[in-house]
Amino acid sequence: MLNMTQITKTYVMGEEEQVVLNNINLTVNKGDFVAILGPSGSGKSTLMNIIGCLDSPTSGDYYLSNQKVDELDEASLAAIRNKEVGFIFQQFQLLPRLNAIQNVELPLVYARVQEKDRKQRAREMLGRVGLGEKLQNRPNQLSGGQQQRVAIARAMVTNPTILLADEPTGALDQKTGQQIMELFHELHEEGKTIIMITHDIEIAKNASRIVRILDGKLREEFTYV
Questions:
Q1: Is 119 exposed, middle or buried (0-12, 13-18, 19+ CB in 10 A)?
Q2: Which positions, given as ranges, span the membrane (predicted)?
Q3: Is 155 part of any domain?
Q4: In this structure, is residue 201 part of a structural domain?
């Protein structure tokens, strides 16, 4: 499903070249639940941006669903971001003036899905994450955990190939964060492929595979049963 070979990302700062990712090799199969674990500055956010087609590598090969991503133009990359990857962010990224169902249907608006169909799909997704009674609530009328559930429903509404979660519990208290992780487990058991970026080993242990990144290199990989 996802295959990265010798992915390198460098930035030129003045006369110096900074290597952020150094020959990354990563394979994610359908149905995997992978945590990419690393401290601030380790390169995990850059790796996440490349996985999500928000950034391009300096060198190396990246295939997603049999497409060579680093050769695609911007329009094709935008289509992949909309259809292949469902993004879940630490700060939820909900639009404050829109209610829950309107926030969830946004990716379908961009995909030009007809209104009746997209609203039905958004209702289904909100029901799936336990918010079937909160369709008309705006973000400021929801708790942090509920807002993250709306964000997860929005990420799932296009039935993406991969759910890509960036510190999904970082803005939540421990109890609420664990509830979100329980939802991730349910989605994984249903066959969803999840890649989660985190700095917290306890959160990472919720995944079935952990890849540790440090100083732009994948240092080790281990599996929890």
A1: middle
A2: none
A3: yes
A4: yes
Strands 59-64, 2-13: pairing kind:
antiparallel
Does residue 59 lie within any of the structural domains? no
pLDDT along the chain (225 residues), means of 10: 94 87 95 94 92 92 89 87 89 94 94 92 94 94 95 93 93 91 93 94 94 90 66
**Residue 38: which CATH number?**
3.40.50.300
As for how many domains the chain has, the answer is 1
Tell me the whole-structure pTM to 2 decimals. Answer: 0.91
> Which residues constitute the domain of residue 44?
30-49+73-223
